[in-house]
Input
Amino acid sequence: VNIRVQTNCLNINWDYVTEKMIQANMGNRPAEIRKMAFENSSSVVFIFHSDLLIGFGRAISDGAYEAAIYDVVVLPEFQGRGFGKMILEHLIDTLPTCNFILFAVPGKETFYEKLNFRKMKTGMALFRRAILMKEKGYTD
Ligand SMILES: CC(C)(COP(=O)(O)OP(=O)(O)OC[C@H]1O[C@@H](n2cnc3c(N)ncnc32)[C@H](O)[C@@H]1OP(=O)(O)O)[C@@H](O)C(=O)NCCC(=O)NCCS
Output
């Protein structure tokens, strides 16, 4: 199998990324906004299986000591084969001096625990769509 890891945003089909994020229940932001978010990120990872984009993720960072991970997705038919782990490890490796924070989709915490992430006891978030995020199970 031909697996390719791309660490820049060249030739990414943002409509496809947008569609896969909607299918993963990760929100319906438009393609140009997804493009802006990935292009403005410090690190991006896109995994291709032959020519098919099967997973991606991104990290934002100060480049010195703090970073955050967002938008990690593996296509359902390719889940459970280590690609999610591969995406996380690439993002973490690109920022070797940084701490990382993220919030998991409810139910996916174990995936991150296996990669040595730990639940934060004092994590606080200011969400623009606070009621929606509460309803989705992200906040108290
Ligand atoms: C979460 C997600 C990225 C995981 O990707 P994946 O490619 O299936 O994960 P991997 O195959 O790399 O799994 C790595 C390990 O985590 C475990 N794991 C993965 N998903 C899990 C889950 N939902 N619950 C418990 N364990 C899980 C795997 O069993 C594996 O364990 P092992 O190393 O002991 O074998 C993927 O399920 C996904 O894209 N989901 C939809 C979008 C989403 O929820 N994104 C997460 C945003 S926080």
